[in-house]
Design brief:
Elements lengths: L2 H5 L11 E5 L2 E4 L4 E4 L2 H4 L8 H13 L10 H11 L8 E5 L2 H15 L4 E5 L8 H5 L4 H4 L10 E4 L4 H9 L3 E6 L13 H13 L3 E5 L23 E4 L10 E5 L1 H4 L15 H13 L2 H22 L5 E7 L2 E6 L4 H9 L2 E2 L1 E3 L3 E4 L7 H22 L2
Parallel strand pairs: 3-13, 5-6, 5-7, 7-8, 8-9
Antiparallel strand pairs: 1-2, 2-3, 4-10, 9-10, 11-12, 12-15, 14-15
Helix pairs in contact: 3-11, 4-11, 8-9, 12-14, 13-14
The chain binds pyridoxal-5'-phosphate (PLP).
Length: about 400
């Protein structure tokens, strides 16, 4: 398998795994080795791999009609948006359908731009909204921005996440059109803001007529044990962006909001040849059907089980700074760089993600059984302990 290394552009940090197939919460490599998947393809495989219902919906749609441009009406899209209207926050009655999370953000930026006479966008420190140029403009990390700064949107300011004092900057500034925020930061390291902070953020943005965009691309669709992560704080944003799991593995994303905002985008101002294609919509309908309140409740319970198991396994291990999370969006923050630990975890059959240099991020499929969550947790704990004992020899 050297063609990927030869031909794929060098933009991804590659892991030493060569996956052949997936089933449920397991991935199998070309040598038949099994992995418990704690990363879900960066949070996409929320309903696991080879999900029969998604498969059937996609295959069936492939037979009927694989592509219909958004200028044409088609049944699969019609059904999908009806179902979507049943899960988005109340009153969110207009959707822009794209393919990737970054596209949903691009559309949100345009909606905001056309909905407000004010000029500035505010985003948060440690934010991640994607890497297309608009999305990158509100993504904080200098690592991603540094060579492109001069071609990014200029009117962007970053404020501290979960920083009450910085909210005063918003209150005092008369030129802010919108605030973009992740209700739980994903790439930034699974950062959970305080309830009071989020409520103040909503109060101030409402008071100042600033559009609040909640990026739910990673945190939405039940991942935190609520359909939308912002519900953990009992607030309602003005616009949300949805991606990752919504297409069950087929690229699909959504920018959703009230028509008073969304209708400001006019014909031709945003489009995508394949956005909202029938196959993605058929998959999306199947995902929404399976995202029952019972399943989302299970995400909450399983998250608690996972955190308890990690706490038990990692009690008193000094290189662990913190275990935190909501639902099945969790992190282990270490005092050391994760790389050797992550590699050892892969050797022991657990795949996980990371944030920065020292945070292990866990985003397992919602359907993972308790036994596998506990097994993965025990492998993770043992791997961290082994590393700790090695360096303390
Ligand atoms: C919160 C958030 N927003 C936006 C994106 C970008 O999505 P995509 O990679 O599909 O463009 C991501 C991806 O990780 C994300 O986590």
């Amino acid at each position: 398998m050297n063609y990927e290394d030869e031909y794929i552009a060098n933009t991804y940090q590659r892991l030493p795994v060569n996956i052949k197939r997936g089933e449920g919460s397991y991935l199998y490599d070309v040598n038949g080795k099994t992995y418990i998947d704690m990363m879900s393809g960066y949070g996409v495989a929320i309903l696991g791999y080879s999900n029969r219902k998604i498969r059937d919906a996609v295959c069936n749609q492939m037979d009927i009609l694989p592509i219909a441009h958004a200028s044409e009406y088609t049944e699969a899209r019609d059904k999908f948006v009806k179902k979507l209207s049943g899960i988005v926050p109340e009153g969110f009655n207009k959707f822009y359908l794209g393919n990737t999370g970054a596209e949903a953000i691009e559309a949100a930026i345009k909606v905001v731009k056309k909905s407000s006479k004010k000029h500035k966008l505010v985003a948060m420190n440690n934010s991640y909204h994607g890497k297309t140029l608009g999305a990158l403009s509100i993504t904080h990390s200098n690592k991603y921005r540094k060579y492109f700064d001069d071609i990014l949107i200029k009117n962007v300011e970053f404020i501290g996440y979960n920083n009450e004092e910085d909210l005063e900057k918003i209150r005092k500034d008369e030129d802010i059109a919108a605030v973009f925020f992740e209700p739980v930061q994903g790439e930034g390291g699974i950062n959970i803001p305080d309830r009071e902070y989020v409520r103040h953020l909503r109060e101030i943005t409402e008071e100042k007529n600033i559009i609040l965009v909640a990026d739910e691309i990673q945190s939405g669709l039940g991942r935190t044990g609520k359909m939308w992560a912002h519900q953990n704080f009992d607030i309602k944003p003005d616009i949300i962006t949805i991606g990752k799991g919504i297409g069950g593995g087929i690229p699909l994303s959504v920018t959703a909001g009230k028509s008073e905002y969304m209708d400001n985008l006019e014909k031709g101002e945003q489009s995508s040849t394949t956005g909202g294609n029938p196959i993605a919509c058929a998959a999306g309908s199947s995902v929404i059907d399976q995202l029952t309140p019972e399943l989302i409740q299970e995400v909450q319970r399983k998250g608690e089980l996972l955190r308890k198991s990690l706490h038990d396994g990692l009690d008193n291990i000094k290189i662990v700074r913190e275990i935190r999370g909501l639902g099945l969006m969790n992190a282990i923050e270490l005092r050391v760089k994760f790389l050797p630990i992550l590699m050892d975890m892969i050797n022991h059959g657990v795949l996980s993600l990371y944030s920065g240099l020292n945070i292990i991020r866990l985003l397992p499929p919602y359907l993972m059984g308790d036994d596998d969550l506990e097994k993965a947790s025990s492998i993770i704990s043992e791997t961290i302990k082994t590393y700790y004992n090695e360096v303390n020899k």
